[in-house]
């Protein structure tokens, strides 16, 4: 077969790695202190000194966007990890054992899905109060159902395969079946879900922060920056623009990545 | 001499793959006469289905006919425009596929799917179309045709679905039907029913059929003449009885001898070493040379000319060319 | 002296059908319905039938890949259900299965070497050196060489894949192998290679085969005895020579007539209708809906098994002393 060339996949990789590099740089270096205020230089237009201008407190927007990328990645990675680990365990047990185990877990997942994701997150935050950690927990819980369902279906699918039956016939136990036979085959659909959930988590975090329910000051967050920029949309449009672009890029990058992964997988199958 | 319904002359088909162009069919020539069933046999990857797709102009996007002529009643099909094609497909030439479930539209009733063909190719009224459809359904062995008219494909068994597919292929009274492994997906007793149906069609309708199969039992049952294909070439052709009782090409011989049956019980089965070469593995000369037990020196260099054995029985093998050593 | 290696007694396997509504009654598909037979050591026993006849389920029941609804499986006289976990694992070394679709029966993410090593690892057989040798020797047994060790299943042809599947089945030195349509997906010339290989291995390692297939030519060539299944029941069982040449049950008769030669065309029997739904099988004899000899008794009572010569058994009212209407020739 011809070697597949998935252009969106490479664009996705490109965007994501670019932002990753930006995030890594920002840990050690930003052009200005992202929290240094300068009341004489509020809402300055882009210049050599401040390539993306300054905000309503005179802080350098470029530095804040760079710093914000850290928050975005931390929240994305942690929330996805929580969702992935719990969702995977739930989905794998439901899919592998079937019967009443599946029945109980599936109903639980259905119940979670009955709430719109963002509403669930808001509810959790309302109970546990705002802040970075709680935002991560809320977003992590929000992404459990999708991981659980994907894992469950691939476990159910591969459990029926002849190579699994042949291995059972050779005396293999559950642990061997799960880790050697099902897991390696279930990884690629899960990777797609990871990429999608990542962008979903970032988008939701921005939404929550925009509502003031997410990351609290002084931690910089793109969503909150967007909210802060809103009153100045006419006087300092670059503020809204650059924050919006940052969010869009990251979400787009992960979505393209997910699409590309899915295409590759479909071609193999 | 009768004029053939369909004749193919020196047709080459190639695939455009990312790393180059590969010949999939080479020098295919054969004719189908009125009221004749021609079988095409060979293993998977030999080009049986590709041949039928070329005839119907439904080759995959990356494949094309490089060379040759496909004549349907003196019209060269290769020069035909898409509109004329659609006129011919379904009315003059029609196709029956292996998997009835995928050949039928799951969202339309079977009656509608059959009468659809009439709507496209005739000016009959709605009522006559329905009448014709129902009588066609009865002809293909669906006795409860009136009841089944409004059912959906998934409500029918595999055998009944295949009967519907056959009814769709027959309703416009085509001159030639191409059936690509039409019984392979069916159970033994259902396969027997469908073969019986084909025999009746041949008897009463006088439709010509190209019957593609890998199963010699089925071929023997239904065909008058048979073409044996190997790696994109027709290596032997002739009447079914002649080919089965007196195969000449080493590949045909090997194929027939390797079929197990109770008479060979206890014996080691004859086998052909190796496997069919893939598109990219094909080399010059006779494609079978690598697997052939009676290979001559010339076989790897040159593809043999066709040799007439007896009547319509021809074979492409150096063993039968003048000057070749008589090793058999 | 040959004795029974595997004995099935009155096997039933019902699958619960998913209920559409909460108020629906539980419905069962009777995949296997009262099947008994025994496979003798060293023989090839053929199980034929169409899709939905339950033949594959029988194979999986023997290997304990699915649980039984009723009945018992005995291996060398011992009830397999009574095995402890330890015994069961040991027993699994002796019974193996080869599936139809060589694409689905090998893990696509593992190399041939890994696949062949797995059974040895599971049973902690020998040291690294022993395992390596064993894998190479088994590869040789199935006609492959060490160049295959690092290849993945998708790099192999159908025949090669099936050889790997066979290798992984024989690597533990089993006594009994279920071959579930093991050659059906292959081209004729490759099929002949695999059949020869199976025969060769049988001789070399004194293997016993349960050969499940819908291809009557293959079964007649390969097997010593044959059982014909219809809708989860065995309708006829006997030596290949007897059953193949003169089947008694009307279903077996029709089945075997489909592979008759050209010159016997007029003897061909074409059955009418389709296989009934296994979830709702006919009353009495399951075949009466398609049988041209069907009598009143067939619609009501299930026929008992009658014997012909020796081991040839048939379940059909035609051969019951009381209501025989047809000459047996």
From TrEMBL, chain A:
Membrane topology: Multi-pass membrane protein
BP GO annotations: transmembrane transport
Gene3D superfamilies: MetI-like
Superkingdom: Bacteria
Cell compartment(s), UniProt: Cell membrane
Pfam families linked to this entry: BPD_transp_1 (PF00528)
Gene Ontology CC annotations of this record: plasma membrane
Domain ABC transmembrane type-1 per the UniProt entry, residue ranges: 69-258
Principal location: membrane
Keywords assigned: Cell membrane, Membrane, Transmembrane, Transmembrane helix, Transport
Residues spanning the membrane: 7-29, 72-96, 108-128, 134-151, 182-203, 236-258
Sequence similarity: Belongs to the binding-protein-dependent transport system permease family.
Protein's recorded name: ABC transporter permease
TrEMBL record, chain B:
InterPro entries, A to Z: AAA+_ATPase, ABC_Ni/Peptide_Import, ABC_transporter-like_ATP-bd, ABC_transporter-like_CS, Oligopep_ABC_C, P-loop_NTPase
Domain of life: Bacteria
Molecular function GO labels: ATP binding; ATP hydrolysis activity
Entry's Gene Ontology cellular component terms: plasma membrane
Entry keyword set: ATP-binding, Cell membrane, Membrane, Nucleotide-binding, Transport
Mode of membrane association: Peripheral membrane protein
Transmembrane regions listed in the UniProt entry: none
Annotated compartments: Cell membrane
Main location (coarse class): membrane
Entry keyword Cell membrane: yes
Domain ABC transporter: 8-256
SUPFAM superfamilies: P-loop containing nucleoside triphosphate hydrolases
BP GO annotations: peptide transport
Keyword Cell division recorded: no
Family the UniProt entry places it in: Belongs to the ABC transporter superfamily.
Protein's recorded name: ABC transporter ATP-binding protein
Organism: Oceanobacillus halophilus
From TrEMBL, chain C:
CDD domains: ABC_NikE_OppD_transporters (cd03257)
Domain of life: Bacteria
Entries under Pfam families matching the protein: ABC_tran, oligo_HPY
InterPro entries assigned to the protein according to its UniProt record, in alphabetical order: AAA+_ATPase, ABC_transp_ATP-bind, ABC_transporter-like_ATP-bd, ABC_transporter-like_CS, Oligopep_ABC_C, P-loop_NTPase
Keywords from the UniProt entry: ATP-binding, Nucleotide-binding, Transport
GO terms classed as biological process: peptide transport; transmembrane transport
Gene3D superfamilies (UniProt xref): P-loop containing nucleotide triphosphate hydrolases
GO molecular function, one term: ATP binding
SMART domains to which the protein is assigned, alphabetical: AAA
PROSITE patterns: ABC_TRANSPORTER_1, ABC_TRANSPORTER_2
Domain ABC transporter: 6-256
Family the entry assigns: Belongs to the ABC transporter superfamily.
This protein's name: ABC transporter ATP-binding protein
């Amino acid at each position: 077969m011809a070697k597949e060339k998935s252009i969106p996949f490479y664009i996705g990789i490109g965007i994501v790695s670019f932002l990753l590099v930006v995030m890594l740089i920002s840990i050690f270096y930003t052009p200005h202190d992202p929290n240094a205020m300068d009341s004489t230089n509020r809402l300055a237009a882009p210049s050599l000194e401040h390539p993306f201008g300054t905000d309503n407190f005179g802080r350098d927007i470029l530095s804040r966007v760079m710093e914000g990328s850290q928050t975005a990645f931390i929240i994305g990675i942690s929330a996805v990890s929580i969702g992935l680990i719990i969702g995977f365990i739930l989905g794998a047990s439901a899919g592998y054992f079937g019967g009443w185990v599946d029945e109980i877990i599936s109903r639980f997942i259905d119940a979670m899905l009955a709430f719109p994701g963002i509403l669930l997150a808001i509810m959790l935050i309302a109970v546990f109060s705002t802040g970075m950690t709680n935002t991560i927990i809320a977003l992590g819980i929000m992404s459990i159902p999708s991981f659980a369902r994907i894992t469950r279906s691939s476990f159910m699918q591969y459990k029926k395969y002849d190579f699994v039956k042949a291995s059972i016939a050779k005396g293999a136990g559950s642990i061997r079946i799960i880790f050697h036979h099902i897991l390696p085959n279930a990884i690629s659909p899960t990777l797609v879900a990871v990429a999608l959930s990542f962008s979903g988590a970032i988008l939701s975090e921005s939404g929550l922060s925009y509502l003031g329910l997410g990351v609290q000051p002084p931690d910089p967050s793109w969503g909150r920056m967007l909210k802060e920029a809103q009153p100045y949309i006419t006087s300092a449009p670059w503020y809204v623009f650059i924050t919006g672009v940052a969010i869009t890029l990251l979400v787009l990058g992960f979505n393209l990545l997910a699409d590309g992964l899915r295409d590759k997988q479909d071609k193999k199958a | 001499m009768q004029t053939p319904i369909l004749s193919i002359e020196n047709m080459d088909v190639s695939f455009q793959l990312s790393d180059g162009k590969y010949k999939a069919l080479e020098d295919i020539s054969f004719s189908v006469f009125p009221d004749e069933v021609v079988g095409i046999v060979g293993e998977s990857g030999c080009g049986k289905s590709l041949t039928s797709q070329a005839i119907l102009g439904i080759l995959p996007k990356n494949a094309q006919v490089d060379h040759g002529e496909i004549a349907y009643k003196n019209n060269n099909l290769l020069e035909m425009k898409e509109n004329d094609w659609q006129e011919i497909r379904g009315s003059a030439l029609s196709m029956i596929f292996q998997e009835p479930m995928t050949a039928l539209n799951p969202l339309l009733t079977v009656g509608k799917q059959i009468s659809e063909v009439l709507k496209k190719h005739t000016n009959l009224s709605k009522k006559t179309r329905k009448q014709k459809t129902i009588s066609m359904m009865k002809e293909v062995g669906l006795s409860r045709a009136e009841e089944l008219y409004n059912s959906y494909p998934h409500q029918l068994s595999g055998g009944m679905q295949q009967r519907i597919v056959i009814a769709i292929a027959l309703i416009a009274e085509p001159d030639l039907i191409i059936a690509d492994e039409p019984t392979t997906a069916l159970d033994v007793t259902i396969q027997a029913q469908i073969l019986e149906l084909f025999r009746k069609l041949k008897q009463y309708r006088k439709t010509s059929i190209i019957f593609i199969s890998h199963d010699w039992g089925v071929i023997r049952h239904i065909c008058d003449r048979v073409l044996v294909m190997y790696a994109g070439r027709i290596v032997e052709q002739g009447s079914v009885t002649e080919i089965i009782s007196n195969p000449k090409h080493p590949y045909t011989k090997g194929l027939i001898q390797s079929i197990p049956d109770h008479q060979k019980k206890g014996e080691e089965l004859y086998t052909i070493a190796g496997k069919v070469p893939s598109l990219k593995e094909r080399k010059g000369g006779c494609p079978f040379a690598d697997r052939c037990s009676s290979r001559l020196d010339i076989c790897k260099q040159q593809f043999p000319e066709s040799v007439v054995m007896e009547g319509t029985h021809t074979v492409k093998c150096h063993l039968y060319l003048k000057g070749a050593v008589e090793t058999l | 002296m040959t004795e029974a290696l595997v004995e099935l007694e009155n096997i039933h396997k019902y699958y619960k059908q998913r209920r559409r509504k909460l108020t629906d009654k539980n419905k069962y598909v009777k995949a296997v319905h009262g099947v008994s037979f025994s496979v003798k050591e060293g023989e090839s026993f053929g199980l034929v039938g169409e899709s939905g006849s339950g033949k594959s389920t029988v194979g999986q029941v023997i290997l304990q890949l699915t649980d039984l609804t009723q009945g018992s499986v005995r291996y060398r006289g011992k009830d397999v259900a009574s095995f402890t976990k330890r015994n069961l694992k040991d027993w699994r070394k002796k019974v193996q299965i080869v599936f139809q679709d060589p694409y689905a029966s090998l893990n696509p993410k593992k190399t041939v070497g890994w696949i062949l090593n797995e059974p040895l690892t599971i049973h902690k057989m020998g040291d690294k050196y022993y395992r390596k040798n064993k894998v190479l020797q088994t590869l040789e047994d199935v006609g492959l060489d060490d160049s295959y060790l690092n290849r993945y299943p998708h790099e192999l042809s159908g025949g090669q894949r099936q050889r790997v599947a066979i290798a992984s089945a024989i690597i533990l030195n089993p006594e009994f192998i279920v071959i579930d349509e093991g050659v059906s997906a292959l081209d004729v010339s490759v099929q002949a290679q695999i059949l020869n290989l199976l025969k060769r291995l049988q001789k070399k390692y004194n293997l016993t085969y349960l050969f499940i297939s819908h291809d009557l030519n293959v079964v007649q060539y390969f097997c010593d005895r044959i059982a014909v299944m219809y809708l989860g029941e065995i309708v006829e069982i006997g030596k290949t020579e007897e059953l193949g040449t003169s089947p008694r049950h009307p279903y077996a008769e029709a089945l075997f007539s489909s592979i008759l030669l050209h010159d016997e065309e007029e003897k061909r029997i074409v059955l009418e209708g389709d296989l009934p739904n296994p979830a709702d099988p006919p009353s009495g004899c399951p075949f009466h809906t398609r049988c041209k000899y069907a009598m009143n008794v067939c619609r009501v009572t299930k026929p008992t098994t009658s014997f012909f010569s020796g081991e040839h058994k048939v379940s059909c009212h035609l051969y019951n002393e009381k209501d025989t209407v047809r000459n047996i020739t």
